[in-house]
Write a structure and sequence with these properties.
Helices cover 56% and strands 17% of the residues. By secondary structure, it is α/β, with parallel strands linked by helices. It has a single domain, classed as Rossmann fold. The model has no long low-confidence stretch (mean pLDDT 88).
Length: 146
């Protein structure tokens, strides 16, 4: 099992602090942000190459989770996003999945379930990265005539 690198994004400070502590205890590298814009700034500042998965709250003031998800997938398509909400609706779940969310979980979610989803999402991201590297190596080899 890989140790995922995660960015937790939620406007509820106490929730973020608690979740970060729980994830760190389980060997997860964690960064955090309290808004969608803060998350995008962190990812654009080079954090995207080190972040496997974003855990993203749906209901946030300003840029909400669905807007943040769309921006993350546009700017950093390999980063996987797990949507978390205490206000889930079928419509918001469907919208999130349409915009490329890896999964959608209700708050409070079981930490075991979240860890399973984090590991699955991190594996998916790293598999995509490996395939891209293999494709680049093949293209270089073909150009050289190897």
């Amino acid at each position: 099992m890989i140790e995922p690198s995660v960015l937790v994004v939620d406007d509820e400070v106490q929730f973020v602090e608690t979740l970060v502590k729980r994830l760190v205890k389980r060997g997860v590298r964690v960064n955090f942000a309290y808004s969608g814009q803060e998350a995008l700034d962190a990812l654009s500042g080079g954090e995207a190459t080190r972040t496997d998965v974003v855990i993203l709250d749906v209901k946030m003031p300003g840029m909400d989770g669905l807007e943040t998800l769309a921006a993350i997938k546009e700017e950093h398509p390999l980063v996987e996003v797990i949507m978390l909400t205490g206000h889930a609706t079928v419509e918001s779940a469907i919208e999130g999945m349409k915009h490329g969310a890896f999964d959608y979980l209700m708050k409070p979610c079981d930490l075991g379930v979240l860890m399973t989803k984090l590991n699955e999402a991190a594996t998916k991201k790293r598999d995509h990265e490996d395939k891209i590297l293999e494709a680049r190596a093949t293209m270089i080899s073909l150009r050289r005539g190897d």
